[in-house]
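FORM 7B: Structural annotation worksheet

SECTION A. Query
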Amino acid sequence: MKKIIILALVLVASASFCPLEAKKKKKVEEPAAPVAEAVQLLNASDSVSYTAGMTFTKGLVSYLLQQKVDTAYMADFIRGFKDMISASGDPRQKTYVVGMDIARQLNERMLPGITNEFADSPDSIVAPLLYRGFEDALLQDTTLFTMAAAETYFAEREKADKAAKEEKLYGPNRDAGIAFLAENAKKDSVITLPSGLQYKVLVAGKGEVPTVSDKVQVNYEGRLIDGTVFDASARHGDKPAEFMPTQVIKGWTEALTMMPVGSKWQLYIPSELAYGKRETGQIKPYSTLVFDVELVGIVKK
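SECTION B. Predicted structure
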């Protein structure tokens, strides 16, 4: 022991006389890989338990990579793993570890989601203040807001910002559709129904008119008001599409239950009778749509 103390003093003294040299040689030490104790498998239960642990790791590395974990620091992973295992008997340690996991989920999942939600709106998310609000709520600090007041304020701003965002992004698209329908309604060949649906008869059929419970056979082509084709029955094979009038957008349902078999109509469908505020492929929210629809037949039961 005396030799060890003397050796330590010598090392300290040499370091104090050579500070520059010490700085040159100083390195940031990485956590050492955990030293595993020798394992003894004394019976079948021991072996089953050990191999079960090994099999539990199947796919874990792939999962860690998906979670953006750098597997070069596996020693730190093992350290955290052991801390969590030991925490099972320590309420304070367990709470601490769970807090770290919740922070990870909040930072990696919830924060990006809500940040994206408020993008292009009058408000934006300030991460440090979001974290502070999270902490204060858990500590029941009502200096700025009670929980009820916070929920009410956030819900109101979320609703207002969503409306403002939709108006900014899709208002011009909606207005273009409204203007298109208003101009289209002035044409002599176009019929406007009370629902807002417009149509023009291209071919007048003389067959049976389907009911909502019939299955129909239809050839169609769908376009945006700028002429972009977003769908057509020909893209799905050389046979007419088959469906019930209730399985399609409202504008189609109304038209199909008015068309005699053999008819071909051009439909002009306002957004509220189409996909409304939903975005579907090339169809932006609040889009007015144009369809050429040929009612080929009714599938008899």
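SECTION C. Observations
Confidence is low (pLDDT under 50) at residues 1-26. The beta strands are 191-192, 198-203, 215-224, 229-232, 241-243, 264-269, 289-299.

SECTION D. Sign-off
Analyst initials: ____
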